[in-house]
Amino acid sequence: MRLLTLLLFIFMSFVRADIVIVTNKKSDINHLSKDAVKYLYLAKVNKINNIKIKALLSENRGLHIRFINNIIGKDIHQYTSYWARLVFTGREAIPRRLNDEEIDEALSHINTIIYMDRINVKKNWKIVYEQ
Fold first, then answer.
1. What is the mean pLDDT of residues 93-121?
2. Which residues are paired to 117 by β-bridges?
3. What is the structure's pLDDT at 14?
4. How far is 25 from 3, CA to CA, in rounded Å?
5. DSSP-based three-state secondary structure for 57
6. 27-83 pLDDT, tens digit each
7. What is the rounded distance in angstroms from the CA atom of residue 110 to the CA atom of residue 42?
8. Which end of the chain has the least Cβ crowding within 10 Å, N or C?
């Protein structure tokens, strides 16, 4: 039984891809720290090193939940509640979640970022943060 559990754990580790933050290859952004990513996705800042950055959200629910849990450090209910307060107070608008086609279009713009599984990174994007 323990061997089966161990093998299952090893298999799941390989199946689950690492989350990375990507931007356009021509972007002025070269590297982001985990804290910078958190601040951008919690709308606490919108500039890093005098570069205005637009943080995008993925429509992929499983990836979104993993990102919120692992990078932001909140569960999905805490994150949703946090954003509800920002919207209610008028400080921020609800970020729209993008599908794969919309992500391609959005990342054609300079200084936009989005999280994704490492295996989905394309040649015209660069990784600026990896878990």
1. 92
2. 19
3. 45
4. 44
5. strand
6. 999 999 999 999 999 999 999 999 999 999 999 999 999 999 999 999 999 999 999
7. 20
8. N
Q: Which domains does the chain have, with CATH numbers?
A: 17-130 (3.40.190.10)
Cβ–Cβ under 8 Å, residues 52 and 46: yes
Strands 47-48 and 51-52: antiparallel
User: At residue 47, what are phi and psi to the nearest 5 degrees?
Assistant: -135, 140
The candidate with the shortest Cα–Cα distance to 30, out of 53, 13, 14, is 53
- For 30, phi then psi, to 5°, come to -115, -30
Helix intervals (H) in 16-117? 34-41, 61-67, 76-88, 100-106
Q: Confirm if 12 and 49 have CB atoms less than 8 A apart.
A: no
Phi and psi dihedrals of 117, rounded to 5?
-70, 140
DSSP symbols for 99-121: -HHHHHHHTTSTTEEEEEEGGG-
Task: Tell the burial category of 61 from Cβ atoms under 10 Å away from its Cβ (0-12, 13-18, 19+).
Answer: exposed
Q: How far is CA 119 from CA 6, 14, 122, in A?
A: 24, 12, 9
Determine phi and psi for 116, rounding to 5 degrees. -165, 170
